[in-house]
Specification:
With 383 residues, the chain is mainly α. It contains 13 helices and four strands. A two-stranded antiparallel sheet has the order 1-2. Strands 3-4 form a two-stranded antiparallel sheet. The C terminus is likely disordered.
């Protein structure tokens, strides 16, 4: 603004260019000057407010369309006063009308560009939304969402600003949900990490050469020690997860899912599998213990055969003569089955189920047993 033009409008004598030596200092002149000052202050306030609104619109459009920094720097003289007060703006020309007009033209140009790039901008918002849900392990149908966005834009039934505002609202809600799931998800990650170490520890324990002095053996041993400590914490971690998940579901009235699978179902399945593995480990330990005891003292596991078990004992005495293997009897024992106490067929053609055994079988001497075996060796074998 030109100073002399402004004061001349108050009183012509105030302009030095007129060559008038005297100046008007009447009350009307002083009141006119005071009124002009107030008008200029109000004009300055309005221009600053307008410029700040344009600067805010510019920044929003730039962020929306990822405008490069080089293009943004062309309007630094506009955005530099976005948060300044009226008294802080003192640079000459900072609130010039042509500067405000320039900012208005740029905002209008970016608005038109935004309309032409609406699909690209909306898809960018959708990608941001999907990324938030992905980090929160929440499954959404991204393809269906994109088809809906295309349908809304092509139909023209929704304003671009309204569509973007709705998507921004969805992003805000997604961030809030992700924040509410964070504590549970952190525990899920710890649980899964512990399960991986548990699986590695099982493979490590099955390795018979794990204590050999090979490269990296000491590192595996240290890892196994840490893994055992971590595995022992799994039951408490699972219980804590179940409690927090149930509280979360009761608070929101929905099921807590992890990549589309209910988390409580995952935890229940893991608990059952873990119980099965523990039972299998216990069975294997008992079996191994029994084998070790048998190998140390096999006589402790043998007992005096009862008369009802004599047939199997007799058959085990002569596997070589009758062609059997590993002490088991074959059909070739049919000839002397009656002598050995096995089932026989009576004269009527019916099978006799009575067990026949020598009365003094327990007291039989080695010579009698040998003579009995030699006697059975001479019998002809049946096909």
């Amino acid at each position: 603004m030109d100073f002399f033009t402004t004061v001349t409008e108050v009183h012509p004598s105030l302009n030095d260019a007129t060559g008038v030596q005297s100046k008007s200092i009447s009350n009307d002149t002083l009141a006119g000057l005071a009124k002009t000052v107030l008008a200029l202050k109000e004009d300055k306030k309005q221009r600053l407010q307008k410029l700040q609104e344009l600067a805010t619109q510019l920044i929003d459009l730039w962020n929306l369309m990822d405008t490069p920094p080089e293009e943004r720097s062309l309007f630094d003289h506009v955005t530099c006063n976005i948060s300044a007060s009226v008294d802080e703006v003192t640079i000459p020309g900072a609130l010039a009308l042509d500067l405000i007009e320039q900012a208005e033209v740029e905002v209008e140009r970016l608005d038109q560009l935004k309309a032409s790039r609406m699909k690209e901008i909306a898809f960018k918002r959708q990608s941001e939304l999907e990324e938030i849900f992905s980090h929160a392990h929440v499954e959404i149908d991204g393809e269906a969402a994109r088809e809906k966005i295309l349908s809304l834009i092509d139909s023209g039934n929704v304003e671009p600003v309204e569509l973007l505002a709705d998507m921004d609202n969805q992003i805000l809600k997604a961030k809030e949900e992700a924040l509410s799931r964070k504590e549970i998800l952190d525990k899920v990650e710890k649980w899964m990490s512990a399960c991986e170490e548990e699986s590695w520890l099982e493979d490590y324990n099955r390795d018979e050469n794990r204590y050999n002095a090979s490269r990296g053996a000491h590192l595996n041993l240290k890892r196994a020690e840490k893994a055992r400590v971590l595995v022992n914490k799994i039951p408490a971690l699972v219980d804590s997860l179940v409690a927090k998940t149930r509280a979360w579901e009761q608070d929101r009235g929905i099921t807590f899912t992890y990549d589309g699978v209910p988390l409580l179902a995952m935890l229940d399945e893991y608990a059952m599998l873990r119980q099965d593995r523990e039972e299998e480990k216990k069975r294997m330990r008992d079996q191994k213990k029994s084998h070790e005891q048998f190998s140390k003292d096999p006589e402790a596991f043998s007992s005096t055969p009862s008369p009802a078990r004599q047939p199997s004992t007799k058959k085990a005495l002569g596997p070589r003569a009758n062609g059997g293997a590993n002490g088991s009897s074959t059909r070739r024992h049919s000839l002397n089955s009656h002598q050995n106490g096995s089932r026989s067929i009576n004269r009527d053609g019916k099978r006799d189920t009575r067990q026949v055994s020598p009365v003094n079988y327990v007291a039989m001497s080695k010579e009698d047993a040998a003579s009995h075996i030699s006697g059975t060796d001479t019998l002809p074998a049946t096909p």
